[in-house]
Amino acid sequence: MTSRRNFLAATAATAGALTAANKALAAKTSSTGFPYTEFEARIARRDFRDMTKDVLPTPSLVVDQALFEKNLKTMWDTTKANGIAIRPHVKVHKSVDVARIQLAHGGIGLTCATIAEAELMSGAGLRGVMWTKQPASKNNVARAVALSKKDPTFMFVVDDPIVFDWVEQAAAVENARLKILVSVYAGLDRQGIENGKAALELAQKVASSKRAQFEGIMAYAGISAHVKTFDKRREHSANDMAAPRETVELCKKSGLPVNIFTGGSTGTYNIDHENGLTELEVGSYVFMDTRYFVIGGKGNDTTYNDFEGAMTVLTTVDSKRHPNQVAIDYGNKAAVRTTDKVKGMPSIEVAIQGAEYGGLKWKDGDHDFKVGDRVEIYCTVLDDSTNYYDRYYVARGDQIVDVWPIMGRSGAAQR
Predict the structure, then answer these.
(1) What residues of the chain score a pLDDT lower than 50?
(2) How far apart are CA 105 and CA 93, in angstroms?
(3) Which of 190, 308, 330, 346 could be cross-linked to 315 through a Cys-Cys bond (beta carbons 3.0 to 4.6 Å apart)?
(4) Among 136, 285, 130, which residue's Cα sits nearest to residue 218?
(5) Strands 325-328 and 358-361
């Protein structure tokens, strides 16, 4: 796994590759006080003086630091008041830098979707990492056992007795101890053993193992997160979580200690404590995406404004040859979607134009763009967009103040 230092240092190698002519052109066109040829070298040494958005390559991800910090505070203040812990999900950012900040704002650990994410976070010295997908391949079994041996705070889930047999056998060979939660069904069909007797028997199987410690129950009611209007979302969440709550009580009555009852999401962050959860796997709240903008909040049925859109895709207008539309450099390879939204311009439509191109369209008289204009766009799905980029540029207004590498992603070998 590439370290942050190596990542940043490697980018500096491109700094001397441009010709003298390119250097002269960069010096003339830059409005930030330094030529673009210095860009990567300055990032590598973390020198952001006079670096503003206008010098950034596009498309790129930009994080509004003030809104990001506001989102963190809102989540921490709300969950603290509701008496529920947060174990933030890193799949939306895949960044050690963001994870550290989340832990500093109340996180008791981290939630991961892939073993690569878990290895990255644990390898950076972050503790309390939980992997929410059972290791069903030989590769993942070996890596889960190895990480358990290396980091005694690492946890993962199972929802199948056969998979538990596999990890138990591997743990015996490696003389490792495992911390395991049982994943139960909570309305989302992709995983989770049946609640009740089946879940109890799997929990008892884990608890009786010499190689494993039963930590508790995971019930991710992912569908509830995007149900529109607060009241309907609250009702949907209660229905999806009813059976998992009964399973937790069944485990307790059978003498099993349920240290953790985890699940939840950004959409139900102020509801989940009512359903018995002890902690939340919230992730999207840090940046937000357009899927959440329309679900409605507690006091607003149409707009969800509990958290701000803190991350945008910065793009450039590349061509303007047809009325009421322009081409931008935010295309399929950068995860453009027609459901994306232009920041500050809700009437502008985002279009798909190909691998390297997207588009902006509007009605007569609404707007006008010039070639070279910069436009910021809210992405539709944070998890997907993150996987297309290498870094976040962190901005305070127009000033770039930090760069956060995006890691633990890409090829199949890492997953």
Answers:
(1) 1-2, 7, 12-30, 411-413
(2) 16
(3) 330
(4) 130
(5) antiparallel
Q: Which fold has domain 4-64+308-414?
A: Lyase, Ornithine Decarboxylase; Chain A, domain 1 (2.40.37)
What are the residue boundaries of the structural domains of the chain, listed by start? Answer: 4-64+308-414, 67-293
| Euclidean distance between CA atoms 341 and 387, whole angstroms | 19
What per-residue confidence (pLDDT) applies to 8? 52
Q: Are 176 and 149 in contact (CB under 8 A)?
A: yes
- What's the CA gap between 274 and 264, in Å, rounded? 11
Could you report the per-residue pLDDT of 216-263, keeping only the tens digit for each?
Answer: 999 999 999 999 999 999 999 999 999 999 999 999 999 999 999 999
Q: Report the interhelical angle of 161-174 vs 197-207 (nearest 10°).
A: 10
156-196 pLDDT, tens per residue? Answer: 999 999 999 999 999 999 999 999 999 999 999 999 999 99
CATH 3.20.20.10 is right for the domain spanning 67-293: yes
**Distance between CA 230 and CA 157 in Å, rounded?**
30
Which pTM was predicted?
0.90
CB 281 within 8 A of CB 89: yes
Continuous segment of H or E residues that includes residue 359: strand 358-361
